[in-house]
Amino acid sequence: MHGEFKKADSYQPLRLLSQGKMVGSVIDMQDESENTALRRAVGNAFATKNILDYEADVDYTAENLIQALRKVRSTDVFLVMQQFQVDFLMKAAFSRKTDYLTARKPTKEITGHARLSHWMKWQSMPSLERLLYKSPFCRGWYETTGKPPLWTAMATEELKIRQDIGSDVKTNREQDLLSKYIEGAKRHKDVSMELLRRMISSTISAGFDTSAFTMTAILYFLLKTPKAMQRLQDELGVALRAGKLSNLPRYTETDKMPYLAAIIKEAMRLYHFIAGPLERVVPDGGAEIAGKWFPGGTNVGVPAGVVHRNKTVYGADPCEFRPERWLEANKHQRVVMERAMLSFGAGKRICLGRHIAELEMKKVIPRLLLEFDMTLDDPEYILAPVDKYSRFMKPFSVTFKDKR
Ligand code: HEM
């Protein structure tokens, strides 16, 4: 086998049509050399050693989250997690303060739900999708119009400000994502400013619904599994009493907590964000995959939901939420279980922002548990997708009661 497995045409329905042009994102980028150049230029912004640069932004936004929850008491969890994400990402990416949490702003206009459902619906028929929605005869009624998403507008504006020679607005912005992107692009001339602008906004849209969704799923599983909730509370309590956990949890503290890590993995295993297979094309010369021969040019992929419920990998009860499975597994089994996880994708195009997502989850979930007793408003609620194409969940609300 020669060459690499490139992203398949099934990613194309994810692209938008705007002012007669196809607008791609970092996710649907099929040109691997362009993606390699981009990753080389911006990878530093996502490296584990730089993740703590965003910790203060998580703390700032988490404080607003706590205050917002104290005011409303009972709320649609996915909505409030989306509001958290916008405010956090705007702060981490552009050092800008937005007020989605404090002003309880709706997120309908910025969610990628419709776009994702469209992608999933048409991913197995990209040519027909192009013909029906994007050909010159039909595009009129599909073309996106109106305001660009919040982050596209902000990326354009911020890039202009920061490129403005002589401007002194650069102070205090050395740590944010955009400044790291700009630094990277200066060192790698093959990345144009236009590509950079497109990529910073698509990076944020890649991190927005995904992280809000995953934090919502984690809370759901905790609330539905009192034993797991208690064990996590105990883990936090022991660490607090031993002076190993601050009231505003630090990442360096919570990253050492095995049960918290197991909860996050187990929730991501059972309720992952992308429904369909993330297809790749078998390179010229063909390849043997799982004991079968596939000729070059074949699209291959497997939905995460299938792999994540494989009994050989995850044990006899793969449909159960049982974080303990991650702690009981021996070293070899754990490696196999981790390698089979596709929630962040896998291989060369694995999610760039996964360490940032972990930073958020490992700080926000413990903080919520330290501040509140939480209950599902409808104890009968079962987590389920709202439509058959995406995994966006039917809304559910939770009541947050102060612990102290
Ligand atoms: C729990 C939260 C998250 C989940 C579940 C998630 C999941 C994913 C998945 C499944 C992919 C696609 C992989 C593929 O097509 O093969 C992806 C790609 C990506 N994600 Fe995430 N993501 C999360 C958070 C974030 C965050 C917070 C950011 C940025 C701040 C981010 C940035 C990206 C980028 C830039 C890509 C494209 C990488 C490439 O194609 O080279 N993600 N993510």
Automatic annotation (TrEMBL):
What Pfam families does the database record attribute to this sequence? p450 (PF00067)
Q: Which domain of life is it from?
A: Eukaryota
According to its UniProt record, which cofactors does this protein need?
heme
Task: Extract the signal peptide range.
Answer: none
Which terms are listed as keywords in the entry?
Heme, Iron, Metal-binding, Monooxygenase, Oxidoreductase
Keyword flag Metal-binding: yes
**InterPro entries in UniProt:** Cyt_P450, Cyt_P450_CS, Cyt_P450_E_grp-I, Cyt_P450_sf, Cytochrome_P450_monoxygenase
Family, according to the entry, reads as follows: Belongs to the cytochrome P450 family.
Q: What is this protein called?
A: Uncharacterized protein
Species for this entry: Exophiala sideris
